[in-house]
Design a protein that fits this description.
The protein is mainly alpha-helical and 434 residues long. The protein contains 19 helices and no strands. Helix 2 crosses helix 7.
């Protein structure tokens, strides 16, 4: 392994420089970190019934679009990770945002199913290859040696707030441009109103890219500490020998399955709770507003206590919340229980998302090889992008109504249980290490 990585002075230097990092750098990472995923994911989460109608899709077809995204993303994680260890994040992140927004212009034309699959493959490249590992690495650098929980908690919580604001803005635009009563709106009217949502979102993503390009800068000395001229095979092998890397693969995979399943909450509101299109979209937006609160709270608590312990607790919460839905306790007459259960599931899943990269430092993953480690971890951890969508789409379509949703939440409970076991082992392995 490169001798430079083992020098304590390197970590000290980075930490020292990191203390001078302005807050607006983290704010830019937060803004960029969610903006890039609004078009491929957040709009489909908030407006899932509308997307299905506007593009004439069923749940399996939309899930297969996500699978195409996941397949391309899989290769992008592998090759994009080392790229983040060779170049500063500013240019990579800005270019990724602009390329993603360009795809939004195609999305607004309502392309056919084949073209839509190609578009999701394109987004799999733009949002991951140039973007994902640079964002994680820049956040880790900002957090230094004492504020990893805060850095990643604020990142995910802030991203949740940005997503919620985008969702609220989208619902507002959709409502304003819907020409008739919501319950009586035709598919054609819904398509036209949703087009304005897509175009407005694309324009904002372009502006975020400009802000990142001009303001997300680090001094040259800091860049020298975190950027390598060359990534060698021995360094990759060194990363793969770390138990923390393999455990994080399992932890992230299980947590991400749960996060993907949150896409069905707006559909649950429509099909089980019997809400209309705007009310179901508001449920999806409510879910997004939970995320920033959880991210900030868990980030603050994690730095003060055992950070991995809170990761274990997060899986326990998502498991218990999933059981409430899976057992059929929540029907259209149990509105309060519906929202309480959403809160429990969301608290667990969003806490896990906030923490699973924050434990990299405890897991002794070298700072300068963060991009490479993130790429390798993500190669397995984010495979739910390939299989989760079709899996729960099949469960929903094969058992229409409440039964299909119960099957989906049994799936969530299973993965939460496995993720909790992996997190518990991580806790036992690293809890005594500083």
């Amino acid at each position: 392994m490169n001798e430079q990585l083992n020098k304590p002075s390197s970590e000290t230097s980075v930490t020292k420089n990191q203390k001078k990092a302005p807050w607006y750098s983290l704010l830019l990472l937060i803004l960029a970190g969610e903006s890039v995923f609004i078009l491929p994911f957040v709009l489909a989460r908030v407006f899932r019934p509308t997307v299905l109608d506007a593009f004439a899709l069923d749940n399996v077809q939309l899930g297969l679009c996500f699978s195409i995204y996941g397949i391309v993303a899989l290769l992008s994680y592998l090759f994009g990770g080392p790229l983040a260890d060779k170049f500063p994040p500013r240019k990579l992140i800005a270019i990724a945002l602009w390329m993603t927004a360009l795809g939004g212009l195609v999305y607004a034309t309502y392309p056919g199913y084949t073209a839509l699959q190609i578009l999701y493959g394109y987004w799999g490249f733009t949002t991951i290859f140039l973007f994902w590992a640079p964002m994680i690495k820049a956040t880790r650098v900002w957090g230094g040696s004492t504020s990893q929980g805060k850095a990643f908690g604020f990142l995910d919580g802030g991203r949740g707030l940005v997503g919620a604001l985008f969702g609220a803005m989208g619902v507002l635009i959709f409502s304003l441009f819907l020409g008739s009563e919501i319950a009586e709106a035709t598919v054609s009217e819904s398509r036209e109103a949703f087009r304005y949502v897509i175009l407005a979102t694309s324009g904002i993503v372009v502006l975020v890219g400009l802000a990142v390009w001009f303001f997300l800068k680090t001094d040259r000395e800091s860049e020298k500490e975190i950027i390598l001229d060359k990534i060698s095979l021995p360094q990759i092998k060194e990363v793969l020998r770390l138990p923390s890397v393999w455990l994080l693969m399992a932890i992230i995979l299980c947590a991400y399955v749960g996060y993907k399943i949150t896409d069905v909450f707006s559909l649950y509101a429509r099909e089980v709770m019997l809400y209309d299109q705007v009310e179901s979209a508001q449920v999806g937006t409510f879910l997004l507003f939970i995320r920033p609160v959880i991210g900030v709270l868990i980030g603050i608590m994690a730095d003060r206590f055992q950070i991995v312990f809170w990761l274990v607790i997060s899986f326990v919460l998502s498991f218990l919340g999933a059981l409430l839905f899976a057992t059929g306790l929540i029907s259209d007459s149990a509105t309060i229980l519906f929202f309480i259960s959403i809160l429990i599931v969301a608290a667990g899943l969003y806490a896990a998302r906030s923490l699973y990269f924050a434990v990299m430092q405890i897991g002794q993953i070298p700072l300068a090889l963060t991009g490479t480690a993130v790429g390798l971890i993500s190669l397995i951890g984010y495979t739910p992008d390939i299989f989760a969508g079709p899996a729960y789409g099949y469960l929903l379509d094969s058992s229409p109504g409440a039964a299909g949703h119960q099957h989906v939440f049994w799936m969530l409970a299973s993965f939460s249980f496995i993720g909790g076991i992996a997190a518990l082992y991580y806790y036992k392995l690293y809890r005594t290490k500083k």
